[in-house]
Specification:
heterodimer; A: mainly alpha; ABC transporter involved in vitamin B12 uptake, BtuC; two-stranded antiparallel sheet; 16 helices; 2% strand; globular; B: alpha/beta; Rossmann fold; 9 helices; 10 strands
Chain lengths: 393, 256
């Protein structure tokens, strides 16, 4: 009796039990179900050479902002201005590229347009964060104000400078600027080259009719070969790379660094964190600046990919970002979350958003029905996880 | 007799027109438990928050090893060796034992990375020293019992160099058995001999069990102080009830 201690009452878990109880597990299972279902329903088209590229494009877009939103939610705050920030950053870059840098600093290059925009958006992130931590107001209401403020500013700036709420027909900067190319060009060309190489090996010696049947075309598409028997897709969109980079950095920071510990501590109980010397306010402001950074990367990839921008870009994206963060297991109350889960969430939501292109029979609005349903399910699941950890019943 | 590690002279703290502390003197010696007793609103919390650097004194002076000090922030106080374990323990429930132990003072490698294995080991060893063998430092604090949390917070304060350990009602929200566990922990810390403990409590029995010295506060002033041999049980009860005689109180109650 005497050698029994309280810690003995906590059963040791096996590796499998631990895995099942991980916070990402729900998002992971849903993701696997969606991948399998989509592969069957689209007859494999969703994951042929072009399908994969298009799916990853939207997954990466969602993922970039969802990771920013998740980091901020873990630190205990919300940002509803992400979508407007995307619009603002896109407007800023496009107008500079078309009309030159502000204050007569001359012609803009893709690099200077990006840099000046990033300085502005980071400053806005700093201002939003500082208002929230200094005033003690809810970030919900402060960032809601910036949602309107930035969207309005974006539209006004377009009309004043450009006389129209969109910029189109910019030169294709990624042709000559390496900087525009790493944001809007293609990456991982080796992947599609290897895919094509394998495809060639597999079709070597196969005689195709001169007029390809639909079956032939679908088969060749899964081997990255086009109708003229050449390589079909040459690479992923560059945002895939940025998604990986941002996710990797966020994962590393959260799980392995002092800053990560500070972010968790700030979101969990900020008074406890402060009493232990964690610079709570700086952590929060930093996280607001990180979401602004993510929004800017989102906009930069879009602008340099399409060479256009308009005042409605990024509309509603803040809500998708928050929804994906929650689907990925991030707690609304802060202090808990997983980047891996957010990545699974982004893949799930991205695939469903795109599903209509591969399964034309279904109505695209089902996407929002689905998102609402899994969001609600995720909130309940997360609440269970929180209660389990905090020992509540 | 050794010199006091911490000495407070004529400490006054006003919040606007309200005088929370009206001239308090206090001496705390290493290897001793100093019980600070008093009713709600007696000024106990203000006193420890001033010692912990949360509030700045309006008048009076704090001395550490005979040298006058001014704490402008909790960081200053903890650098001077004052470790405060608040009632809410300043723990984060969703985070692991180790992450809580090193919260704000993580061991860093290159690029601000955490030396997590080393931190796990230290957290485990430090808690073992004062009585809890914790097999899994990656366990969330939310799953621990109140007594275990108290031990974690105390071990943390000691590891980070507390020479004066301020315990703010450490037994108040616990069950009987866990209260005894915390008192044992206090005794173990006292046995080290180099740490002075300020033990704030409502509970006269608990303070009797572990304290060497007593100070009684009422309405922001000291109404009685002494070593455990100097203060008898009746005197103690009288001081606990804010200086009213028990007999008077009985009469008052009987008159209703």
């Amino acid at each position: 009796m005497a050698d029994r201690s309280e810690s003995d009452r906590l059963a040791k878990e096996t590796w499998l039990q631990r895995t099942i109880r991980r916070p990402e597990i729900g998002a992971f299972i849903v993701m696997i179900v969606i991948i399998v279902a989509l592969a069957f329903a689209s007859d494999g088209k969703a994951f042929n050479a072009l399908g994969l590229k298009n799916n990853i494009k939207i997954i990466a877009q969602y993922g970039i902002i969802a990771i920013g939103a998740a980091m901020l939610m873990i630190a205990g705050e919300f940002d509803l201005s992400i979508g407007s920030m995307i619009g603002f950053a896109g407007m800023s870059m496009a107008l500079m590229l078309k009309w030159g840098l502000p204050f007569g600093m001359g012609e803009a290059t893709p690099f200077t347009a990006f840099l000046v925009t990033l300085v502005m958006t980071l400053a806005l992130g700093w201002i939003i964060g500082t208002i929230v931590v200094r005033s003690g107001l809810s970030s919900f209401i402060v960032t809601l104000a910036f949602l309107f403020f930035l969207r309005g500013t974006t539209e006004v700036a377009f009309r004043l400078i450009n006389q129209s709420t969109q910029v189109s027909g910019l030169p294709d900067f990624k042709e000559e600027s390496w900087f525009a190319n790493i944001l809007g060009g293609e990456v991982f060309g080796w992947f599609y080259s290897a895919w094509f190489w394998i495809g060639q090996k597999m079709t070597a010696g196969v005689e195709f009719p001169t007029r390809l049947t639909n079956e032939n075309i679908n088969y060749l598409a899964t081997l990255n070969i086009n109708r003229r028997l050449e390589q079909w897709v040459t690479g992923f969109d560059a945002r895939f790379l940025w998604f990986i980079v941002i996710a990797a950095i966020a994962y590393f920071v959260l799980s392995r660094t002092q800053l990560g510990n500070w972010i968790f501590a700030t979101g969990d109980n900020k008074e406890a964190a402060r009493a232990n010397g964690v610079p709570v306010n700086a952590v929060k402001v930093g996280c607001f600046m990180f979401t602004a950074f993510c929004a800017t990367m989102f906009a930069a990839c879009q602008v340099f990919d399409t060479n256009t921008s308009d005042a409605a870009k990024g509309n509603l994206m803040e809500l998708f970002a928050i929804a994906i963060a929650v689907v990925g297991g991030t707690l609304m109350t802060g202090g808990f979350g997983s980047i891996l889960g957010v990545v699974f969430g982004a893949i799930t939501v991205g695939l469903v958003a795109n599903a209509v292109f591969f399964i034309p029979e279904i109505d695209g609005a089902w996407f929002r029905v689905f998102l609402g349903a899994i969001l609600l399910a995720a909130v309940f699941a997360n609440e269970r996880i929180r209660k389990r950890i905090t020992g509540g019943i | 007799m050794a010199d006091p590690y911490l000495r407070v002279e004529n400490l006054v703290k006003r919040f606007g027109p309200f005088t929370a502390l009206g001239g308090v003197d206090l001496e705390v010696f290493p290897g001793e438990v100093h019980a600070l007793l008093g009713d709600n609103g007696a000024g106990k919390s203000t006193l420890i928050k001033t010692l912990a650097g949360v509030h700045q004194p309006s008048e009076g002076q704090i001395f550490i090893q005979g040298k006058p000090v001014n704490f402008r922030s909790p960081r200053d106080a903890s650098a001077a060796g004052i470790g405060t374990v608040y009632q809410d323990l300043a723990l984060n429930q969703l985070m692991s034992v180790t992450r809580n132990f090193f919260m704000g003072r993580e061991l860093k490698g290159p690029l601000g990375t955490l030396r997590i294995d080393e931190m796990d080991q230290i957290a485990h060893d430090e808690m073992l020293k004062i009585g809890i063998d914790f097999s899994d430092p990656s366990q969330a604090v939310g799953t621990m019992s109140g007594g275990q949390r108290q031990t974690l917070a105390i071990a943390r304060a000691i590891y980070f160099g507390a020479k004066v350990l301020i315990l703010d009602e450490p037994t108040s929200a616990l069950g009987q058995k866990q209260q005894m566990g915390v008192l044992k922990t206090i005794k173990r810390v006292r046995a080290r001999g180099d740490i002075a403990i300020i033990f704030i409590t409502h509970n006269e029995i608990h303070s009797r069990l572990v304290a060497d010295r007593f100070t009684f506060l009422a309405l922001g002033k000291i109404i009685g102080a002494g070593t455990s041999s100097e203060i008898g049980d009746n005197e103690m009860r009288r001081l606990m009830s804010g200086g009213a005689e028990m007999g008077d109180l009985e009469q008052e109650l009987a008159g209703i």
